[in-house]
Every structure is written in structure tokens, then in C-alpha cells.
TrEMBL record:
It holds the Pfam family Cu-oxidase_2. GO terms for molecular function: copper ion binding; hydroquinone:oxygen oxidoreductase activity. Binds 4 Cu cations per monomer. It is an enzyme of class 1 (oxidoreductase). This is Laccase. Its EC number is 1.10.3.2. It comes from Gossypium stocksii. The keyword Metal-binding applies. PANTHER family: LACCASE-2, MULTI-COPPER OXIDASE.
Amino acid sequence: MGASPAIVMILFVAVGCFMAYPEAVTAKHTGITRHYTFNIKLKNITRLCHTKSIVTVNGKFPGPRVITREGDRLVVKVVNHVPNNISIHWHGVRQLRSGWADGPSYITQCPIQTGHSYVYNFTITGQRGTLFWHAHISWLRATVYGPLIILPRRNESYPFVKPYKEVPILFGEWFNADPEAVINQSLQTGGGPNVSDAYTFNGLPDPLYNCSAKDTYKLKVKPGKTYLLRLINAALNDELFFSIADHSLTVVEADAVYVKPFETNVLMITPGQTTNVLLKTKPKAPNATFLMLARPYATGMGTFDNTTVAGILEYETPSSSLKKRPLLKPGLPAINATNFVANFTSKFRSLATAKFPANVPQKVDKKFFFTVGLGTKPCPKNQTCQGPTNTTKFAASMNNISFALPRIALLQSHFFSQYSEGVYTTDFPAFPLIPFNYTGTPPNNTLVNNGTKLVVIPFNTSVEVVLQDTSILGAESHPLHLHGYNFYVVGQGFGNFDPENDPPKFNLVDPVERNTVGVPSGGWVAIRFQADNPGVWLMHCHFDVHQSWGLGMAWIVLDGELPNQKLPPPPSDLPKC
């Protein structure tokens, strides 16, 4: 980017609206800088006949769309006007050498305190597609989230038919109660948190829920057109099935990476995942209206919000009353349809073309094996708890370490290494310290250890991680998200991972590349990535309840030797703890 204002076109987006900009300012290979302002403020919102004050960006729920292009620089000033601390995570953005802008509180930054601001400044490098942004502290992302849409560079096209229209659809969860009160009570009592009261499409429930007839998402379409639906699961704690009655969908992208197109009537999408699908409308407007439904895929033993959200797909027609049209409803798999999900996820494959290659690490420098699951912590003295027993609290862990957030941000602590003592240790186990039959009869001792333990890896290490679900307090699917990286999903299966017989079956040719993967319930998944991005990177379950219980860890990726392999110093406005 040149320094001259005549060369650099600055695009101001007040309140998050997208404005066009002159073609002339954009050279072929350099992006432009786009400015957004996020005012974090309270807003009264009514859903299900409940009015409450929620934390929002610019008073919008869901929050504003951030629209950019591959190669552009985003400069987002976040100003905190609410009593809560806040930080914003740009979910799925690689953040190459811009880890200070990643956003998870106490990992790459201290949160932005009331009355303070922070500017997130980063460039979109080698990515295009659908991502999203959300709060990354406690459960504030229940209401603080919105789409991050990365268009291809100018004059570049999609590797699929150009859609007539593009539509983001965000799946969310609505709580009548304050989500902060819900998780605080759960952590206090040690019990499972109260579940949400509704699922939403773009912030709206539907007529199936109490007094929500007017709060229904409608997608109006024209016959004979192709629509690109940008689906984002921003729900807090639930994987969701999605289907549109009498319409098939063609999956073309996952987590902002193009995939080999495949057709399906039903999708499953975990929290933290995005999926772009093409919807081809019928050649003539049919005499029917079509329901779009989403409901949970649930495998754990805990309670969950067992409701269904409906939206309406409606064909635009010159006349004929809509009320006379029959309403068609799609079928969805059983709530715990684990085999359907395994079959569905196995269909995702990278394009693996010259233009969009699958750069899977063929050789591995470091192998890790992490168990992922639930456990317990002892109840404090003189307190009765509501965990699995009245003397225990629910917990969650990786390799039996329940991740404890530090008091100052890990990246700061690492960068100014004199501060790291007493903040974290670098002895996170590469393998379970006490192996057991992970998916068989669980051990009697389910207590976890607490700690802020990290793994240190040299720059450009090729890493393989096998993530193994456990049956402790019930086998369950866990959507694992890695910050700062995409990874290749080279294998998955049910039961215990077999280090002898499973690796020969790994797909090292065209595995899907993602930032969030569902660890199968009672099974395992193997991922590979090249550690080419220095910094401190969180890896955690994207069920917020499990993250709150400690299901996470972090990687320190050291600087390389060359200047462009080192993390620059933090910006001057980095929040203080």
C-alpha cells in the first residue's frame, strides 16, 4: 500500500454498511483499505414476547455485514460503550503476522474495557469466501456476531456458476435470560447451563415459537435463478441440520475454501463452520411455499434446546394469493444421526487444482494425540454442587488438562518473554499421560487437572494432530476450532484411533481444508497444518459451554529467521488488562 492518499482509496463504512468504490483505485494485485467502526452498545430487543437489553454492534442484531475482497486491508475500530469487557474475533481469518488482531480475550489481547477502544488492523491474504466475526469473551457472542464476506479479487470469478444473488443466513441461538447470567450460574453451581429458548435465522425465530409470527425469516426468490446461500452457524452450543423443502443444494465452499461441488438435501453445520451452497430455483414458480428448517444434531447426554427454527422460501409471482398455497416441509435426520453426519462430512474434498491447490503436508515433523471430552472438578468445601454428583462440577479438557485463562494475554506475555513466568507453562502433553480405552468403559476417576499449558513449535513445523473423543460422561461430537490457521482433515473414524492401521488410509491428495472440524461422537479425526504463522494460537471446542469448562489449549509458534517470518510488535493501542 503506498502512503499517498491519492493512491490509497479509503472506504468508510459507517454503521457497517457496504458502499461501492471507484474501480480506478484498485490495482490488479493490491487491495484497498476498508474502514469500519463497531460501536459496542446496549439495545432493547424483543423476541418470543421477551424484551431485554442485549450487547450489540451499532445497535444491530445480528451485527453488520463486513464486506471485503481478497488482498484488502481491514481496519475496524471497536469502541466499547457497555459495562462488559469485549473483544472481537475474526473467525477463520489467517491473520498472517497480525496475531494482535485475532481477538480472543486473554489469548492475543486483553479485552477492551468500558470506555476504551482498539483498532483491529489486518490484511486478507489468500482467502475468499464466507467467514464471520463474533465476540470472544464469555458468552457475549450470543448476540455479538455478523458475517464477514470476502469477495474474490477484482476480475476473478467463482469456480462455479455466477449466482444471480448472494444471501447470508446466520444460524443463532436466542436466550430469554441474559446468556452471561446463564453461564455464570452454571460455573457457580457446577451444573449444565440452562439451554436457549429458540434458534434463529438472521436473528429471527418463527411462527413455531411463542408469539413470533412476525419474526420470521423470508427468502423471496425468482424462478429459474441460481442463488448463493452463505450459511454461518453462529449458535452457541449446537450443531444444526438444515434443509429446504423440495429443493436440493449444491455445496461449493466450506470455511472460506472452495470444495468439489456435491449435491445434498440436508446439511449439517457445526458452530464455527460456514458453508456456501448454490440453490437453483425451479424453472416456473410453483403453487407452493417452502419451509427452511434447522434443528440440532445432538449426541451428548446433557440437555439441549430441542426446538426447530423455520424460515420461508417464497417464489415471487405477479398475483395469486400466497395464503392459498400449500406449505411444504422438509424431512430432517434423527437428532443423533451420527452415521448420516459421518457420511455427509466425508463428501467434503478440496478442489486440488493448479489455481486452488491442496498443499497437504506430506511429511510430518511433529505428531500429537489429544483426547477431547468432559470430566469433573471437585466441588468447593461447604458447597453442594450440581455436577455429575453433588460433590463435583462439570469440566472439560484436552489430554485431561482443563484450560485456565490467564490474567494477562498470552501473546503479550510470550512476546515480552520476561513476563511469561507465572502466566503459562509450555508443558502441555503431546499424548495422554495415562492412556485408557478412550471410547470404551470410562475410567472411575474423571477428575481433570487445571492449567494454562501451551505447546511450543518452531516456525514452519509440519504438524499432525489426532483429536480423540472420549466416553467420559458420554461420547459427544466436539467442533474443534484452530485460530490463525486452516488445516487439512486427512482422516476420521469411529472408536479409538489405531496408529498402525489408520494412517495408511489418510487422504493426502484432496482432503478438505477448514478452520473448524467436528470430532465425531465416539470417534477421532486427524488434521495436518504447516505452522507458518508466528504467534499464540488458541485451539478450542466451539461449543461455548465446553470452552467455559476448559476444553481448549494454545500453540506458541516461534518466529522464523527471516524478517517476514517474525511477528511484529503490538500496536500502541493494544488493550491493557
